[in-house]
């Protein structure tokens, strides 16, 4: 399987139809402008990649840190300026913030399920990044913080937009957002931010996430992609609107050969793994 080229992200394929993306900017995966642009581009490229990629694990190549967040030098530049008046400077700053938001949201735009496997430090932009992923696993050594508040700013790259939609403990979510305090992987699970805490560090959580990715990759890509789109639509729309959308989506998906294969295998009680066509078969 070929992979998109990347400077700060190690990309490998440890299993059929599965990619492992590892953040890799020494020493702490601080996101410079070049880094977050590359991050967004990488996920957008996966959306139309010619290879049959069906699940992606996002982690860090660094043994003790997922990411320390935004690069401080880049952060200071957003609020700086010369004699430009505040209104015009605000337009430029807003464009920069929107660009960062667009990059961070790339995993959500990607039709492939994205599993974040985090360990060590997960602060600031790290919270924004994992909030836009589909599934979040945490190593027991992970430490989280919505750090922007301590920098004199409300988090603006995704955390606050996602937090109450992806977690179930709203009181705790508000507490963590208002205090920027560090919280553990166990508290992240209590919040509902992560679905599983894996005992150990980087290697343990990546192994668990890859096992999940392999399971997802064994399913019909038509069904998995449809499920991701319908879940995202349901999050932001009413039940009635989502049912209408689902009916339209599945009017096409029901015609896929995947359904016939799955039904026949189920009726025959076959235990053999099914082999599904790529979503983008080569002509």
TrEMBL record:
<dbReference type="InterPro" id="IPR029045">
    <property type="entry name" value="ClpP/crotonase-like_dom_sf"/>
</dbReference>
<protein>
    <submittedName>
        <fullName>Delta2-dienoyl-CoA-isomerase</fullName>
    </submittedName>
</protein>
<dbReference type="Pfam" id="PF00378">
    <property type="entry name" value="ECH_1"/>
</dbReference>
<dbReference type="InterPro" id="IPR014748">
    <property type="entry name" value="Enoyl-CoA_hydra_C"/>
</dbReference>
<comment type="pathway">
    <text>Lipid metabolism; fatty acid beta-oxidation.</text>
</comment>
<keyword id="KW-0276">Fatty acid metabolism</keyword>
<dbReference type="InterPro" id="IPR001753">
    <property type="entry name" value="Enoyl-CoA_hydra/iso"/>
</dbReference>
<dbReference type="GO" id="GO:0006631">
    <property type="term" value="P:fatty acid metabolic process"/>
</dbReference>
<dbReference type="GO" id="GO:0005739">
    <property type="term" value="C:mitochondrion"/>
</dbReference>
<dbReference type="GO" id="GO:0051750">
    <property type="term" value="F:delta(3,5)-delta(2,4)-dienoyl-CoA isomerase activity"/>
</dbReference>
<dbReference type="InterPro" id="IPR045002">
    <property type="entry name" value="Ech1-like"/>
</dbReference>
<keyword id="KW-0443">Lipid metabolism</keyword>
<comment type="similarity">
    <text>Belongs to the enoyl-CoA hydratase/isomerase family.</text>
</comment>
<keyword id="KW-0413">Isomerase</keyword>
């Amino acid at each position: 399987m070929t992979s998109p080229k990347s400077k700060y992200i190690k990309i490998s394929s440890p299993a059929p139809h599965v990619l492992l993306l590892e953040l890799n900017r020494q020493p702490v995966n601080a996101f410079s402008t070049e880094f977050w642009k590359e991050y967004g581009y990488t996920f957008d490229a996966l959306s139309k990649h010619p290879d049959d990629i069906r699940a992606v694990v996002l982690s860090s190549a660094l043994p003790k840190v997922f990411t320390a967040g935004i690069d401080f030098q880049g952060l200071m530049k957003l609020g700086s300026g010369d004699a430009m008046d505040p209104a015009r400077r605000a337009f430029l700053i807003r464009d920069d913030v929107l660009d960062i938001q667009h990059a961070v949201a790339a995993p959500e735009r990607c039709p492939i399920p994205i599993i974040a496997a985090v360990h060590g430090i997960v602060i600031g932009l790290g919270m924004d990044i994992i909030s836009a992923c589909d599934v979040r696993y945490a190593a027991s050594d992970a430490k989280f913080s919505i750090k922007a508040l301590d920098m004199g700013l409300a988090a603006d790259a995704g955390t606050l937009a996602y937090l109450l939609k992806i977690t179930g403990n709203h009181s705790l979510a508000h507490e963590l957002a208002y205090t920027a305090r560090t919280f553990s992987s166990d508290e992240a699970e209590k919040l509902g931010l992560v679905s599983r805490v894996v005992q150990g560090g980087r290697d343990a959580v990546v192994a668990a996430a890859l096992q999940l990715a392999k399971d997802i990759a064994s399913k019909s890509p038509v069904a998995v992609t449809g499920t991701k789109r319908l879940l995202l639509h349901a999050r932001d729309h009413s039940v009635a609107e989502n049912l209408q959308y689902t009916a339209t989506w599945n009017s096409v998906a029901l015609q896929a050969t995947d359904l016939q294969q799955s039904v026949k295998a189920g009726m025959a009680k076959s235990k053999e793994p099914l082999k599904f066509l790529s979503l983008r078969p080569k002509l």
